[in-house]
């Protein structure tokens, strides 16, 4: 007898359903194999523990309620199987996948508007250390029909006039109180 045959015949041995020759072979295997004896002893202890437990009394409605719950569980599991049989896109129903794709599209558009292009700078041209030329256009007026373009140089210096020089304005500026 090998281990697998022994394990198959344990329940028959405990219920006295083995023939005399099978029973002798089973008991001979137990005497020769300590692991088999330990397994049989643990099963016998488990059976004794189960038999010593107090029986629990339930209400008369327990079994019908249990059967109802089992049947309702079977119905919900078939509903879940029906959902699984539907066409799913990445695990989402068609409606949810459409919403998800709309959110992803909106996110990409938002991201493209936030991220600066190659032509834009984080720093203004005026602040840079180099002197750059800026083109200034004057809007059309009835008197001036030609568009004038002035080239102005920007300067990176901190002040417009040197503090040591005094600016003489003379009579060029008239204030309200200086009539």
Protein topology:
Blueprint lengths: L2 H12 L5 H13 L1 H19 L9 H24 L8 H21 L18 E5 L11 E5 L26
Antiparallel strand pairs: 1-2
Could you walk me through the main structural features you see in this protein, from its secondary elements to its overall organization?
The protein is mainly alpha-helical and 179 residues long. The protein has a domain of 50 residues. A two-stranded antiparallel ribbon has the order 1-2. Helix 2 crosses helix 3. The radius of gyration is 48 Å and the shape is elongated. About 8% of the residues have low confidence.
Brief write-up:
The protein has 5 helices and 2 strands.
Rg value: 48 Å
User: What percent of residues are in strands?
Assistant: 5-15%
**Fraction of residues in helices?**
40-55%
**Structural class computed from helices and strand pairing:** mainly alpha
How would you write the strand order of the largest sheet? 1-2
The number of strands is 2
């Amino acid at each position: 007898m090998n281990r697998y045959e022994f394990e198959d015949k344990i329940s028959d041995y405990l219920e006295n359903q083995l023939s005399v020759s099978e029973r002798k072979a089973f008991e001979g295997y137990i005497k020769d194999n300590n692991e088999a004896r330990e397994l049989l002893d643990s099963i016998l202890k488990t059976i004794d523990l189960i038999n010593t437990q107090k029986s629990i009394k339930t209400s008369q409605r327990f079994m019908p309620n249990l059967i109802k719950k089992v049947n309702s569980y079977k119905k919900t599991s078939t509903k879940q199987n029906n959902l699984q049989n539907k066409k799913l896109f990445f695990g989402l129903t068609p409606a949810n996948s459409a919403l998800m794709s709309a959110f992803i599209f909106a996110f990409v558009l938002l991201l493209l508007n936030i991220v600066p292009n190659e032509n834009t700078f984080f720093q203004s041209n005026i602040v840079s250390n180099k002197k750059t030329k800026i083109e200034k256009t004057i809007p059309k007026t009835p008197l001036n029909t030609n568009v004038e373009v002035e080239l102005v140089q920007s300067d990176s210096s901190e002040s417009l006039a040197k503090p040591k020089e005094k600016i003489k304005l003379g009579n060029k500026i008239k204030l309200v109180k200086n009539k």
